[in-house]
Amino acid sequence: MKHILFIVLAVSLMLSGCASTFSFGKGQAEPRLPVEVNTYTIPPNFIPQTVIVTALGDSLSQGVGDTENRGGYAGRLAVSMAGWPGIEGIALENTAKRGRRSDQLLAMFQQGTLTGPLQASDYIVMTIGGNDVMRIVKRDLFSLNVDAFSEELILYQNRFETIYASIRSLNPTAPLVVVGLYNPFSLITDEVEEFDEIIASYNAVMAETVEEDPLACFVPVSDLFVGNQNLVYHTDFFHPNSKGYDLMSERVLETMEQCGISYQG
C-alpha cells in the first residue's frame, strides 16, 4: 500500500511540473512572453558600387584650359563623388568636344552615337550653348545686335529641349546636371551689359527646361567669371584655367546638394 501511494505522489509531481505556471515558495512565475524580432532593411548603398558619370557637350565638359590636366570640372567632380558613401569607384565617360554646338550634339543623338554611353550612365553632366553664341559673334563681328541673338535663341531653345528629351528617352532615371554659360567678354571690358543679358537669356531657357525635371539640376556659374580678379581664365581668355575649374566643380557639388542629388545605390 505504501508503495502504491509513493507512485501516485511521484506521478502527481511530474504532471505539476508540466504546467505553464509553477509555484516556488509563495510566488508564482509568469508565462514566458514571445521574443519580438524587428526586421532590418539593408540600405541600397551598403555594398559599394562603381558608378559611371557621362559628360556631354563642349570644351567646358571636356576640360579645355585645365593646365593641371585633371579633366576640368567633370574630372574634379568624379574625384569628389568617389568619396561618397556607397561608391567604390568612378568611371568617367567624357564624350564632350571642343567647339561643339547644340546642332552638332543633337546630330549625335540622331545618329545613335550617344545611345550606349547614356544608357549605361548613373550620372550625366552637360555644358552646351557657348559655341552657339560665339558663332553669331564671329559671323556678325562688325555688326553685332541683340536681335540676331534673340532669333538664334528661339532655335537654340528648340534644339536644347530636343536634346534634353533625347537624354531622358535613353536614360529616364540618372541624375542630370546642366552647367550654365558665362560671359567671357567681361574679361575684356566692363561695358558688357547687353552681352550679359544675352547670356542670361540662354541660361534662363536651359534652367526652365531643367527645373521641370525632379531628377535634374541647373548650375549657374556666370558670377564666377566676371572679370579676372580671381585669375580664373586660361591664357586663351575664353576657357577656365585650373582655378576656374576648381570653382566650377565646387559650385556643381554645392548645387547638387541643394537639389538633393546624391548616391542612393
From TrEMBL:
<dbReference type="InterPro" id="IPR013830">
    <property type="entry name" value="SGNH_hydro"/>
</dbReference>
<protein>
    <submittedName>
        <fullName>GDSL-type esterase/lipase family protein</fullName>
    </submittedName>
</protein>
<dbReference type="Pfam" id="PF13472">
    <property type="entry name" value="Lipase_GDSL_2"/>
</dbReference>
<feature type="domain" description="SGNH hydrolase-type esterase">
    <location>
        <begin position="55"/>
        <end position="247"/>
    </location>
</feature>
<dbReference type="InterPro" id="IPR036514">
    <property type="entry name" value="SGNH_hydro_sf"/>
</dbReference>
<keyword id="KW-0732">Signal</keyword>
<dbReference type="InterPro" id="IPR051532">
    <property type="entry name" value="Ester_Hydrolysis_Enzymes"/>
</dbReference>
<feature type="signal peptide">
    <location>
        <begin position="1"/>
        <end position="21"/>
    </location>
</feature>
